[in-house]
Task: inverse folding
């Protein structure tokens, strides 16, 4: 079985009751809302990662104002329902950020195609990735240890045939 580790950093930026989100095509092509952020480059500090990624995906420069927590998830990906072929471990650092400059714009040629402020009250109605909910929970609850209570383990997902 192939093993894959991906370390990424994301930002929760809330201003005037709105959350900054980016839009990305989901696995089936349906657009879904994501937190601005993404994978670390080799040798990069996660603090620098989150600032770089927010700028790339939204046009804004942020000041990191705190570390909200860490989300660690494993996903077993299979092909055609057979035995798992990839054990993917996603380690995600969730920061709080404040916009300090730049102008809202969309990423060109990247992993997202749109960025917008969304009212916190409508976020539950958006087509979004699970990490948005995790991050908002961390932002609201601010657990001292940076971890949320345990949740149901992930279920295997079908891999795309390539």
Result:
């Amino acid at each position: 079985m192939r093993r894959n580790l991906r370390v990424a950093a994301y930002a929760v930026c809330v201003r005037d009751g709105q959350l900054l989100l980016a839009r990305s095509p989901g696995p089936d092509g349906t657009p879904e809302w994501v937190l601005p952020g993404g994978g670390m480059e080799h040798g990069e500090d996660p603090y620098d990662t989150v600032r770089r990624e927010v700028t790339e995906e939204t046009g804004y420069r942020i000041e990191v104002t705190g570390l909200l927590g860490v989300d660690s998830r494993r996903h077993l990906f299979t092909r055609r329902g057979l035995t798992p072929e990839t054990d993917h471990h996603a380690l995600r650092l969730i920061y709080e950020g404040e916009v300090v400059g730049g102008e809202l714009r969309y990423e060109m040629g990247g992993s997202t195609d749109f960025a917008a402020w969304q009212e916190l009250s409508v976020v539950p109605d958006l087509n979004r990735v699970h990490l948005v909910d995790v991050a908002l929970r961390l932002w609201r609850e601010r657990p001292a240890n940076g971890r949320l209570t345990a949740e149901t383990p992930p279920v295997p997902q079908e891999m795309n045939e390539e």
